[in-house]
Structure formats: C-alpha cells, structure tokens
Amino acid sequence: MLRWFGARVGSGVVIKPGVRIKYPWLLVIGDDCWLGEDCWIDNLARVELGHDVCISQGAYLCTGNHDWTDPAFGLVVSPICLEDGAWVGARSLVCPGVTVGACGILSAGSVAVRNIPPYQIHGGNPAGFLRERKIGETQPLAVPQHSL
Q1: What is the C-alpha separation between 89 and 100, in angstroms, rounded?
Q2: Bridge partners of residue 70, in order along the sequence
C-alpha cells in the first residue's frame, strides 16, 4: 500500500501493526528493514532508511519543528536518515535533521538531537555517547553503502 502512495520500499521489509507514516511519497525504505508496532514516521521532510534498519516499537521519527524566534512560530523541516544497520530503540525520539550512522544505535527511551556516528551507541535525553558497537569477533572496516 505504501508503494501505491509513492514510497520506495525494498524487499523483505516487515511493518508491524499500528505503524503511522504521514507522507509515504517522502519515505525510502531499504531491504530487510523492521518497523515495530506503533512506531510513527512523522515525515514532513524526506526520511530514508538504509538496508537492515530496525525501528523498534513506539519510536517516533519527527522531521518538523517550529522556529521559536519567529513571531509566527513558522514550521521548519529537516530530513532524517538511518543508515544501513542502524537501530532505533523502543520509545525513542529522532529529531529533525538527525542521521544515525551505519550500525549506530539509539537506545530505548532516548532522544537523538544530534547525529550518531557509525558503530556508536548513544542513549539518554539528550542522547550522548555510551560506547562503541562491536559486531562479532572483529569490527568490520565499513558497511557497504547502497544507493536507494
């Protein structure tokens, strides 16, 4: 159904019940992604999910904010990018303009107001560095970047 409304959706994508997506035509989802129950992609601007991305239940991706210096409180939008292998934990918030780098993690209940570099785990409010992410016995040099 998302494809009918302009979303680009890869293969092997799992979308659980209760997922909300504001504007499908501003959404790109790579292969083998997981969108958990009740996650909300409030995409007033483009949201791009690489391959093997997990958005856990109840997470909120918000691309819009208001300019508090503007007397009219004007809307400001900025895209969100979750690179290959990124994971957004349950009940987390990803703010406008944030990129979660390849294999980066935003831990459960956290608020990402700044970019999360590849292979780093961030948590808290606002989210800060917790530790490096090691996968298996050795750390790969790089995750292949796919063109979406």
Answers
A1: 12
A2: none
Q: Is residue 139 part of a domain?
A: no
Please state the domain count of the chain: 1
Whole-model pTM?
A: 0.90
Q: Decide if 75 is inside a domain.
A: no
Cα–Cα separations (whole angstroms), residue 31 to 2, 12, 66, 70: 15, 6, 33, 40
The DSSP code for 121 is E
Return the SS3 of 65: strand
Identity (one letter) of the amino acid at 58?
Answer: G
Q: With contact defined as beta carbons under 8 Å apart, do 19 and 33 qualify? A: no
3-state SS, residue 61? strand
Q: Mind listing the pLDDT tens digit for each residue in 52-75?
A: 999 999 999 999 999 999 999 999
Q: In the predicted model, what is the mean pLDDT of residues 19-47?
A: 98
Q: What is the CATH number of the domain that holds 102?
A: 2.160.10.10
> Distance between CA atoms of 99 and 134, rounded to whole angstroms?
20
